[in-house]
Amino acid sequence: MSKIREINTKLNSKEISAVELTTIYLDNLEKTSSIIGSYISTTKKEALAKAKMVDAQIAKGEEIGLLAGVPMGIKDNISTTGIETTCGSKILAGYKPIYNATVVERLYAAGGIILGKCNMDEFAMGSSNENSAYGIVKNPWDLTRVPGGSSGGSAATVAAREVVFSLGSDTGGSIRQPAGFCGVVGMKPTYGRVSRYGLIAYASSLDQIGPMANSVEDCAIVHDIISGYDRLDSTSANMKATSTLAALTKDIKGLKIGIPKEYFQGDEKVLATIRKALAKYEELGAIVEETSLPNTEYALAAYYIIASAEASSNLARFDGVRYGARDGSKKDVTEMMSGTRDKFFGQEVKKRIMIGTYALSSGYYDAYYLKALKARTILKRDFDQAFAKYDVLITPIAPTLPFKLGENIKDSITMYLGDICTVTINLVGIPGITIPCGFADGLPVGMQILGKPFSEELLFNVAHSFEQNTNYNSFKPEVAINE
Amino acid sequence: MNKGYEAVIGLEVHVELKTKTKIFCSCTTEFGGSPNTHVCPVCLGLPGVLPVINEKVVEFGVRTGLALNAKVPNYSKFDRKNYYYPDLTKNFQTSQFDLPICEHGFLDIEVDGIVKRIGITRAHMEEDAGKLVHSGKTISSSYSSNVDYNRVGVPLLEIVSDPDLRSSEEAKEYVDSLRRILTYIDISDCKMEEGSIRADANVSVRKIGASEFGIRTETKNLNSLKALQKAIEYEIERQIEVLEDGGVIEQETRTWDDEQGITLAMRSKADAHDYRYFPEPDLPPIILSDEYIEEVRASLPELPESRKKRLIEADGLSDYDANLIIADRHLADYYDQVRKEISDGKLIVNYLMGDYYRELGEAGLSFVTSPVKPEAFIELLQLILDKTISGKIAKEIIPIMIKEVKSPKSIVEEKGLVQISDSSELEGMILEVISNNPKAVEDYRAGKGNSIGFLVGQVMKASKGKANPALVNELLKKHLC
Ligand SMILES: [Zn+2]
User: Fold this and answer.
1) Helix, strand, coil shares of chain A as percentages rounded to 5?
2) Which chain A positions have a beta carbon within 8 Å of B284's beta carbon?
3) What is the rounded distance in angstroms from the CA atom of residue A187 to the CA atom of residue A432?
4) Distance CA A378, CA A372 (A)
5) What is the per-residue pLDDT for B95?
6) What are the chain A neighbours of B52 within 8 Å (beta carbons)?
7) What's the mean pLDDT when you consider all of chain B?
8) pTM of the model
């Protein structure tokens, strides 16, 4: 029972109560999360209270929504009233927000049951979830390997069936890459599709919240609930809500798929799995052609400059003055502020703050930040040209299989190069979905499907048709207890 | 005194906009309030919050730009100004850097009858910071400080002038004119005492005739026009002295010490912040259509300079009187309303700025708080013009109009103050005054023309001020010749 419709049917028919279901999930989560490290905090009290409300609704004979009573995990950089929200950082230890993120408000209103706050790389900076101040997360498929990052906890908890779905955030691949590494479905919507209000910013012009689940349909259900205009987020798109769920029935005959050659470099096992998936698409009536995104080589540098620049400013507010941790050993306010930041920020965060500060400094701004913005414009043009010819683009989600814990953590460059398939998508603001498309060496391989801005309906449908004609999402890791 | 030097001055004026709510959230901008009560997650900069621009702030920026003859571009944007200080909640201030809401304007000022055009470099929107409350008098003598974030996010407009000012008088006149325009277009209270308008002065000196600017200092903490003038004068003299002694001016930020009457070095250029400005990613750019800008332009009231011109040219007022009227938008509007019915502008000014103004002051009121509506004032002047009442009676009526909020007509009727313009009624009084004042009569007949004034006064007294003085004058002369 780990799909939304299944749960909905059983709750409606009173085969199981929301409290019973929540209790089972909480018990199993306790067992497996201690192995995987998927959570920073769990919220048993809130979960049971919310489950009771759903049961009361059912008892009164009220119709419940699809998400009512469905267990979920929320990445720990998304604000939840009264529930500690740390961003994976010691600097926010003990910080309990006084307001809910818009996405949380919407999920609560839909009856979603929060089981806890998912582990993550500190301030969403990382690709392996080894940068969390609250312990590493292990890949449920192989406990010696990384789950990907930064939404490593959100991906692992879904893969391990601890929750039915989770929310992650994606700044340079942080939903899609861990989804790929953990063999789950993860969607990064178009920039502006989902409100960022309450998401603790890493890089404001790149961040986007999105759903992760074990099926395309579940991901679509959650997407439809969290997306849509929010007046509290000036960058949220003021356009009519769409139903990606309703779009899942369409077939894909005649669909034109572009294969950008620049993305097909890396582990041959990964590439072979993707090619097999593409053959499946051809079998289903799609037209697959190789294409090019010629300026891809500028993406990584542009990404690390822009993201770090914005982060250096976004993270300035963590100074010990108003909330979170404080270095109490200092007598002077300036010393207290820098002491707090020195003591409680992790190494990777400090590194990116320094990169960003440098890139924005007078005398360097033009050479770095401004140039990165120009690269961003050029990259957008690449995609505009590709989408003039193709409906979607398909790429691997990473050049490698999930790597070993500790393998890349000392080597930033190798770690950053692993983001080659994902960062460009945030720079150009388009939507991208990852779905499992096979296994290699017993590890999941993820395929990324990209579309024009606000083409989520199409992306979900393209992903769905593949899923319906394969069975990769029916496998689950041994560690998982729930069905 | 100036030893052949001239001063070059530019001003940065920060104006607090009188919007009901803050620039990026819906908290009130009201002054006062217990510390940290006018706050919310957004202005507190809590993790995860996002700003939403208050459209009123943009409109006020556009109004200001248009009133200052500036260009209002169709595209402008916000930027982050990054620096660490505990009175900020995010450790950056959301401001505007390279594309402000308006640029390249000007303002005409008048000093000693000479009109001078002062360039406006730009005006940009930004958010105010909070307030540190130290336990001691200064930060260094305090063992602790608290911070009040009520003012965080109050909208500000920073208006930067070109370095076109040459003296402290010009600087004062500039701020005065600016303040007048801003209150006319109703975007700020411009109360220096409450800090709703603050100025920083950039001052340098150079030898007269030199084409290059000298090295400048920036003086902050100028909380009154007097402080502004004194600080500029002090800086000019200090800089000339340094140069005359063969020294060099340090480019630095200085602060005005009001008690000692001097400026003090605060921060040298080497210590200057690198603010690392970059475009605010949480706010989309501000895109203004030509139609919108024209709409705002159409909604602007007539500005002080053009009003003054009209008062002098069309109404025949003196420069002095016109300045009195335009000094305050409310007064100028009041004058205009009265002027619609009363064609004699000079008469309006005499009564408005004379007895009426004095009586308002005595009653502890101002033109804004006065209960006397323009209609009542028109009625008063009409009574004078059609000779129903004398000027003397008008003086008696004005305080009653203010205190009892009655129309002049009803006061005249109640108190029987109608002017006596019937010569038969006056004859008796005149004959009595003539027989009772033989000395004055004799003087008049002996050629001392001014003794007639005394006799007129006596008749006025006998009539309890109701006699028409012109008529009395005429009748007296007839009887005495
Ligand atoms: Zn607020």
Assistant:
1) 45, 15, 40
2) 234-235
3) 6
4) 10
5) 98
6) 231-232, 234
7) 91
8) 0.90
A234–B282 C-beta distance less than 8 A: yes
Q: Is residue A156 within 8 Å of residue A139, measured between CB atoms?
A: yes
**Confidence grade of residue A1 (pLDDT, cut at 50, 70, 90):** low
Q: Per-residue confidence at B480, pLDDT binned at 50, 70, 90?
A: confident
When scoring A92, A171, A317 by the number of chain B Cβ atoms within 10 A, the one with the most, hence best to mutate, is A317
Ligand 1 centroid to residue B178 C-alpha, Å? 29
Taking the CA of residue A7 and the nearest CA in chain B, the distance in Å comes to 32
Say what the ipTM of the complex is: 0.96
Question: Which residues of chain A does B147 touch, with a Cβ-Cβ cutoff of 8 Å?
Answer: 321
> Which of B23, B82, B84, B152 to probe the A interface (max A CBs under 10 A)?
B84
Structure token digits, residue B426: 């006056």
Is A174 assigned a catalytic role? yes
Are B84 and A231 an interchain contact pair (Cβ–Cβ within 8 Å)? no
The answer to whether residue B191 scores a pLDDT higher than 90 is: no
Residue A435 has, within 13 A of its CA and on its CB side, a CA count of 28
All domains in chain A, ordered by first residue:
4-255+434-474 (3.90.1300.10)
Q: Output DSSP code: residue B467.
A: B
Q: What is the pLDDT of residues A412-441, one digit of tens each?
A: 777 788 898 999 999 999 999 999 999 999
> Is the CA virtual torsion A234, A235, A241, A244 positive or negative?
negative
Q: What is the pLDDT of residues B71-106, one digit of tens each?
A: 999 999 999 999 999 999 999 999 999 999 999 999
User: Binning pLDDT at 50, 70 and 90, where does residue B142 land?
Assistant: confident
Q: What is the least distance, in Å, from the CA of A412 to any CA of chain B?
A: 26
- Say which CATH class B423-480 falls into: mainly alpha
Going from N- to C-terminal start, the domains of chain B cover: 5-292, 302-415, 423-480
